[in-house]
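Can you please make up a protein's amino acid sequence together with its fold in token form to help me picture the idea?
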Amino acid sequence: MKMLMSTTALALTVTASAATAETEITVWAWGSAAPGLQATVDGFNAQHSDIKVTIEQNGYSDVKSRVLAACAAGGAGLPDVFQFQNVEMELIIAQFPDCAADLVPLGFDDSAQSNFPEFKLFALQQGDKVLGMPWDSGPVMMFYRRDFYENAGVSLEDIETWDDFIEAGKKVQAANDGVTMINDNLNGGAEFFRMIGEEQGCGYFSEDGGEITMAQSGCVAALEVIGKLNEAGLVSAANFNEKIQNNAAGVVATQMSGAWMEGPIRNNAPEDQAGKWGIYEMPSVVDDGARAANFGGSLLAVAGNSDKKEAAYTFLSYALGTVEGQITMLKDQGLVPSLTSALDDPYVSQPSAFWGDQAIWQTVLGRLERIAPINGTEYFSDADQVMIATQTAFLNGEYDSAQAALDEAAKQVMFATGLPVAE
């Protein structure tokens, strides 16, 4: 992995047409991503006063559905730049290959790409083309209440595996009345399954996207962990908003999520929780495991039919391709940089009062190089829906084992996609 020493990770020579008169570009983004991007505009305009950037904020589902509808209509109605999830970008690449512009001719060459980890570039490459620039990443972290763990006499040094976590969880719940050890979106998502499976090198599909691998041993181990957490009474169902509410109410001891969860936790916590939170690496299924996975994270793509591609790429190059742009968003919204040179910024090593004076970003960004690429493929949504239903049935006792549940799930995905199940 190459590391840059300068604060500017990408360089772009703006064409005369983009520089001689003010050009306006529009960007679609969701959630904290929109204000994060907005926070970079002043710094960008200090260098490029000729380009006006308008950020339009919508919900995640709205952005996704509008982008897909516009791509299906040949690009009609697309903004100049749009946000999309990394794990779902292969859907656009497979079905609408011209909807996103190739960034290589605009300046995103091999040298520029080398400033990002492979797992973030993996879903964006189509042969020699790159159809988006990596943005935030989601190294999986455990966000925990220091006081709840301390009340139970639990030390982080004692938690390396999920079996360790389960034993710690029993102590935490016994010592803190009304507190649940951890939340998971059991009723509407398969987030824990994907995170724990990825830590074990297993995803829905093989690395080349040609086979269904969700019934392989690493994924079986992931579902078994969820079953153990459920059987021990250590996990309660909660979607994203419910997790934030539970955090604020002080009724949950741990949240496992991508590191982008830092902002929502910090920004929604009551004042009296400052200093009571901390983070640590996710447990592994086995001793000496990777303890690293990615959950969430997105990209910015330039619309294939935009007549302002150079100006749009200039903005991407600043917001996503410079340490200044990335650290601005990290400070403002807790959006975790994918740009590896951001590790060298002094802000990363600063302690955070809210997080108990822990230098959390050193821990978070130190996981990037340990995360293995996982292929979402264009069939990610199909597999995810099957997995959500399968997980529910498994936890309800409808399968004799995790292996049996995932064998059935793999067959369902095979029928939906036509892909073979890996042996």
About this structure: The radius of gyration is 22 Å.
